[in-house]
Design goal:
The chain is mainly α. It is 67% helix and 2% strand. It has a two-stranded antiparallel ribbon. A hairpin with a 4-residue loop joins β1 and β2. α4 runs antiparallel to α7 and α6 packs antiparallel against α10. It binds benzoyl coenzyme A (BYC).
Amino acid sequence: MSETQLEQDFQNKIDSGEVIEPKDWMPERYRKQLIRMMSQHAHSEVVGMLPEGNWITRAPSLARKAILLAKVQDEAGHGLYIYSATETLGIDRQEMNNQLHSGKAKYSSIFNYPTLTWADMGSIGWLVDGAAIVNQTALAKCSYGPYARAMVRICKEENFHNKQGYQLLAYLMRGTKEQQEMAQESMNRWWWPSLMMFGPSDTNSPNSGELMRWKVKLHSNDNLRQRFIDRTVPQAEAIGLTIPDPNLKWNETTRHYDHSDIDWAEFQNVIAGNGPCNRDRIRARVKADSDGLWVREAAASYAKKHFPN
Ligand code: BYC
């Protein structure tokens, strides 16, 4: 069968809603796009452990510490599911890590911001995991089976993350004046970077057209961002937090919130490697990789000896 015919059949499968599995024929470009996007996602989960891990030893109570520990461990698990799902496309984990360390592969811009106060644990759970849920609920219906299935479980866990973050902030908002100010100050810092998680605006998103044609992405970046804003504003109001956007306003005609423009120069700067924590994050991951080398070598040697085939 000719390449053109194979591509046509592939597109027909996608159009009729069939799921693509690892052994199915797929265009090389589909494979490459998935590897790019899924490895970026897996790296985000693992790098995302760093800003929250920073607060485990400083959690204000045993219960908060147990919750934070469980959340950070969940993120490690998410990274592992997605790395495994990405390996079904013919790339191995070490190669993905090498791409992260060399800067070839990205990870979410959001994790290049520092966690300065305890309230940031609330903002990450509520806003960052909240944004991730909106994005990942759509990805759970994407055309690539292993990715879609990983998303189903991940979304369940992200819901717990989201709720614990919101509850943490709600608790601070019922507390002292200082606690309320800490929560608001944290919200002020995390709101705009959370909106940037959805990627550039639709008119400036080079990968969206292809990914939507292949139903990897089911909704555009702006569409998902708007969904996140619409569901988050009433939650902020309910606990007395103010969204740091003077132009935020409910629009009766569109039935969505209008908002100010996003500072895309800041976004581009962060994804180019110049955010507040980019260098620290990569340094931490390179160190973890080299510190863990002896474990990987020992495991490989054990496997070779005991399971030669
Ligand atoms: N950060 O054409 P576009 C979590 C890049 S972690 C960095 O729109 P696409 C959590 C993009 O890669 C959840 N880079 O791209 C963990 C592309 O550059 P390259 C993370 C970004 O792929 C721990 C260029 O900009 N979720 O939940 O169509 C604790 C042009 O963009 C970003 C995922 O990774 C960004 N924000 O759409 C708590 C979801 N945005 O690669 C929570 C999976 C764009 O060509 N990924 N870029 O050099 C996606 O859904 C899509 O890849 C994106 C971007 C919507 C992010």
